[in-house]
C-alpha cells in the first residue's frame, strides 16, 4: 500500500523546514543541526554546509558552484593576506627580543 512507500520518506521530510525567501533561509541557516535543511518558496534549499538553487538547470548550477568556489578562494586569500600582515610585525618583534636575550 501507499503508506509503506510514504512512511520512510516522511521521516526525511520532517527535517525540512519551509521559509518564504532565500534571505529567510540564510538568516536561520546557523540554527540548523544534523540533517536539517530549509526550503524557500523562491527556490533555494539549504543544509548545514550546502546550498542548492532549484531554479537553475544543471549547467547553470555547475557554473554557479564554480563562481561560489572562486569567491570563497578570494575571501580566503584576503584573510590570509590580512593575517600575514598581522603576524609579520609580531614575528619581527619576536626575532628582535630573541636577539636581545
From TrEMBL:
Residues 66-100 form a coiled coil. Keywords: Coiled coil. This is Uncharacterized protein.
